[in-house]
Structure prediction request, 387 residues.
Amino acid sequence: MGKKSIVCLAKRRRILSQTLSGLVLMLLVLVFPLAVAAQNATQQTTNDIVRSSTQSVASLISGRIEFVNAPMAPMPPGSGPAPGPGDGKPRDGGIPVPGKDRAALSLPAGSAPGFAGNTMLAMAALGEQTGLSAGDEAARRRCGVWGMTAVNWIGSSQSGASFDGNLVTAMTGFDYRILDPLVAGVALGYQWVDLTTHYNQGFLKSGGLTVMPYLSYSLTPNLVADASFGLGFNNYNTARIDTAASQEVNGHYNSLRSLGSANLTYYHLTGNWTLSAKAGTILANEYQYYYVENNATRHAPMNTFLGELIIGGKAAYRYKMFVPQIGINYLYDYALAGGGDRDEVQGVLALGVQASDRLLINFECANSFFREYTRNTSLTGAIRFEF
Prediction:
């Protein structure tokens, strides 16, 4: 081979190498932003799932605690749902914390302690005022069991990360009044998530068990502190369309979620009104394990941490056995991976019903406002039985 041929061959190889390098660079330029966008969309969806799920569980636990340790406005004489044990009289007086502030238990002549919203407190107070023994189960109800179901309709309209679907939470719990001002309990729940992920023409479905102990302590007759901590064990199924290969890609992974909340609530009673103000925080961390999709795409483990501040207030009005309520909360994400709007205002409408002297029922509707691109509306039903 001549010298001239060798030079031409080397030149061709150089041109081919430069062309291939250019094609690879162009491919990276085109694909990398898509990969980053997909990762950002996944992170944003995960943020919304962790936030909504944690808010739902923490709110439900906090709401159940309100049934047993919150002072409530007195019921008008004769309007109670059922006569009290053994005396034939309805329960018509509100009651704070028995044993902790005995002076607060003084009631008008002829009235008996009420139990709307905190039945066990009232029964303990009844025992103190009528001389019933501490072992009288009818007068000292220290146990409660409850169950509830909540449905959240959630979604995002953010470009490149849009989705919509629902979150369903079912929980049951048991609590016991260890001391007059102290209640301890444990809740067991399951959550289902079913989302359509428009950004990748797919879906995300999950299910998981949550175990959550909780405590509530009445610092004064009007000031109540509560705290809860839980673990959630979740599994996820995903699907997306790989537009390059024109095929559906599926994946499955598990996650471990730790979550907790702490609140301080002040109550003020005036007439038939119960006004309350609350400040608290929610903390959650979800670790999603490594997984491989069915097209061999590998996904590294992902960790999502949420820290949220909650400040709010509620007004409740007692009318016979009914307690309509209205509330507003401000929520701010002081710790959250990724960008996006970090705060929202939540409006709450609720109705409590004391069906009997042992049975309490509550319905609640809440909606989030002013968090950009995000929708979250919930409907909750709860029932509590005391013994």
Observations:
- The helical segments are 3-69, 119-130.
- The chain has two helices and 14 strands.
- The chain has a mean pLDDT of 80.
- The first helix runs from residue 3 to 69.
